[in-house]
What does this fold into?
Amino acid sequence: MIGIMKNRIKKLTSEEIEILKHHFQSLKFNNDFDLVYETQVPNTGIVLLDGELELIKKKKIKSTVRPGNMLGIYKLLKNEPSELGCKVKGNSELLIIQKSDLMEALSDKNSELYAIIKENIDKT
It folds into this structure.
């Protein structure tokens, strides 16, 4: 399952990050914070701009996500529970993307967000 989750983490190009930053507000986390718990359906997509995310299974760190990655989009749009929890570490900066924003981007093939989002949900 961890391999599946890792396959659904999309490494973004600097151009893709700039496009996303133009459309979504960033949030700075000063302290560690649990974003998603195991078996929870994510309620937002996440783009890590700075800092670190930990992917957790049974209270153990299974993987670390570095800046420039997008995750949670596939599970959010498919309404599927996550196999892993996700904790943002203090002094990290994220873009939080709401499901309604994702749906809007996917409804417009001419949107600059369309390709970025579509590629992430089409991964198997």
About this structure: Residues 2-122 form a domain with the Jelly Rolls fold (CATH 2.60.120.10). The chain is about 30% helix and 35% strand. The first strand starts at residue 10 and ends at 11.
